[in-house]
Design goal:
- This protein is α/β, with parallel strands linked by helices.
- It has two domains: 88 residues, Elongation Factor Tu (Ef-tu), domain 3 (Beta Barrel); 157 residues, Nucleotide-binding domain of ferredoxin-NADP reductase (FNR) module (Rossmann fold), CATH 3.40.50.
- 32% of the residues lie in helices and 32% in strands.
- β9, α4 and β10 form a beta-alpha-beta unit.
- Bound molecules: nicotinamide-adenine-dinucleotide (NAD) and FE2/S2 (inorganic) cluster.
- Nicotinamide-adenine-dinucleotide binds next to β9, α5 and α6.
- The site of nicotinamide-adenine-dinucleotide (NAD) has 23 residues, from β9, α5 and α6.
Amino acid sequence: MFKIIEKKFLSENVARLVIEAPYIAKSRRAGHFIILRIDKNGERIPLTISDADVEKGTISLIVQRVGVSSHKLCAMNAGDFILDVVGPLGKATHIANVGTVLCAGGGVGVAPLFPIVQAMKLAGNRVITIIAARNKDLVILENEMAEYSDELIVMTDDGSKGTKGLVTQGMEEVILREKIHQAIVIGPAVMMKFAALTTKKYDIHTLASLNTIMVDGTGMCGACRVSVGGKTEFVCVDGPEFDAHKVNFDEMLSRLGAYKDKESENYEAYVKSCEATSLN
Ligand code: NAD
Ligand code: FES
């Protein structure tokens, strides 16, 4: 059992959970993720470790309420226990001093980007970070990102904070202004697809961290498979980061959409059961 030490909402639907997990805190590196189950009937939820405190023995996870399981997780509070937290999983980000790194995060994808920004800065790179969201209320980790970035650009689709525009517009402005040696993009799959197309035009080596459906997290079930450079890869063991210019994002988008109807059905049933419970 893993104790929740702290829970805080960063925006209306995004919560940060600090969980006691000393062994994971000690061995995790930027890019690693965990899979958790709230209880024995719970769905397996993959989440990137957004931060860790080795001395306190805690890890931080950032969760967006989108379906039944993430709603249940966000409803938990400090003092509650999570049944299983397995990790660290996946391959750590390759961190090196490459020069100037452009890190671009969209929406809740800013959370998994944070440890990479931190590690890239500590490795001596010039780090330019762009964090983008639909509106000002959805911007997360602004102060944390500012601490580890040489330059932080905030973008919103509606212009309610920072510069108005999509993350790709901000990326292109930076690329046209100065030499970028490497880019890292994390966010919704459609964002990563267009961010990859943007950097491809300028021949900038780019990594994308993929958020596919996952089940076992050990390379056995095949749920997380993606095509990268025409080859099948498993996000849980070969990733989560891949050369963004080689990922078949259209295939990934179609696989991500495959369970949408079922997820909506389950979610509606869950909302109804919550309403019925609160009426009784
Ligand atoms: P969102 O839809 O609000 O988009 C966030 C930003 O991405 C936008 O503000 C915009 O700047 C950019 N963007 C979106 N579509 C774009 C396009 N077509 N072209 C260029 N830029 C575009 O994001 P959200 O609701 O916070 O994201 C939720 C999604 O992110 C979920 O699908 C979730 O699974 C995924 N996610 C991915 C990761 C990961 O590791 N890749 C981690 C967490 C969440
Ligand atoms: Fe099963 Fe990756 S989650 S193979």
